Amino acid sequence: MTTQNLRTRPYESDDQASETEGLDKNTSAAPPSKRAKASQSDLAVFISLGLPIDEALTKSYTFFSPLPSSDPSDEYVLGVDEAGRGPVLGPMVYATCFCKETYYDELSSLGFADSKQLTEEQRDRLFARLQQPDVREGSGWSIRCISPQDISLCMLRRNKYNLNALAHDATIELLRDTLAKGVNVRRVFIDTVGPPATYQKKLEGLFPGIKITVAKKADSLYPIVSAASICAKVTRDAHLLNWTFAESKLQNKLSTVYGSGYPGDPNTIKWLRESLDLVFGYPGIIRFSWSTCVKILEDKAVPVTWADDEEASTNAKRASKFFTQTQGARNPGRPRSQFFGRRRPIDLGVTL
């Protein structure tokens, strides 16, 4: 029997680099859990926009702000960034911000910077500014919010769908959706995932005719990426601050003081240890593919036997007997079938 101390089946754990990437730059931002809950006014902003902040986040979703009024000749510049790539809990959010080329200088003057270098209040203020009518006239934004359950599902399936592929596909989906809505994007700036040159070449092949720049630390180089970074960060923080457990009986039992969510944060590790159910593991806020989670489950939780894993192993052994080596290698005493001795090559010219 196959025995594992896991509530899910980690056929492969994610690379440790996925968890620690960006630790130095991301943990500088105050974790959202330092506020017990977002204020009703903060929550109302998201609800009025139509984002499901007050609902259990079990499925990923895409959201677009109202589009600016445009003439077909208007050209746009677009930035892409993410929030929540490394944490062991909560969603990963990819965001775009796009504006008319003629409005870019004005948007840049609003004070956008890398969201991780801003205070929570500054991020909230800038995000609210993006919703104002005068700014909406020249710009818009969108997000792809990937639920922790979907992240676990992708990374724990037998044919692993890794975090980089998930990130690339989220970006590509947002770009395609923006273009499909009639936004005439001519320039794109993206904070890289993986080697910039390889990623840029991939995107240029998918979006010919658009000038694409993929760079490290693009969120600190290009204001349009900084604006996207704020949309991603504020949305992720809002989900965590107002997290609704799909496991409803846990809503008032588990602490929502998660720390930053990064595996290197002692407060996050404390939450993981204190919130562990020895039989059922963790609620759906957790990314079960993270090795931090895997290790705690292996060390602390009771063993679980998966019958289908045992069945798959048995079936694999049964199937292997049909692919044994030829006579003489494994069964030297076994006689060769007479079928091969009786058959001779046929001259098709004579036969026909």
TrEMBL record:
A single Gene Ontology biological process assigned to it is: mismatch repair
| Domain RNase H type-2, chain residue ranges per copy | 75-302
Q: Which SUPFAM superfamilies does this entry report, sorted A to Z?
A: Ribonuclease H-like
Q: Which cofactor does it need?
A: Mn(2+); Mg(2+)
What does the UniProt keyword field contain?
Endonuclease, Hydrolase, Metal-binding, Nuclease
User: Whose protein is this, by species?
Assistant: Coemansia interrupta
Q: InterPro entries annotated for this entry? A: RNase_H2_suA, RNase_HII/HIII, RNase_HII/HIII_dom, RNase_HII_hlx-loop-hlx_cap_dom, RNaseH-like_sf, RNaseH_sf
The similarity comment for this entry is: Belongs to the RNase HII family. Eukaryotic subfamily.
Region (Disordered): which ranges? 1-36
In short, the EC number is 3.1.26.4
Function noted in UniProt = Endonuclease that specifically degrades the RNA of RNA-DNA hybrids.
- Sites where the protein binds a divalent metal cation: D81, E82, D191
The source's superkingdom equals Eukaryota
Q: Which reaction does it catalyse?
A: Endonucleolytic cleavage to 5'-phosphomonoester
Q: Which GO terms describe its molecular function?
A: metal ion binding; RNA binding; RNA-DNA hybrid ribonuclease activity
User: What does the record's cofactor remark say about binding?
Assistant: Manganese or magnesium. Binds 1 divalent metal ion per monomer in the absence of substrate. May bind a second metal ion after substrate binding.
Q: Which Gene Ontology terms of cellular component type are present? A: ribonuclease H2 complex
- Identify this protein by name: Ribonuclease
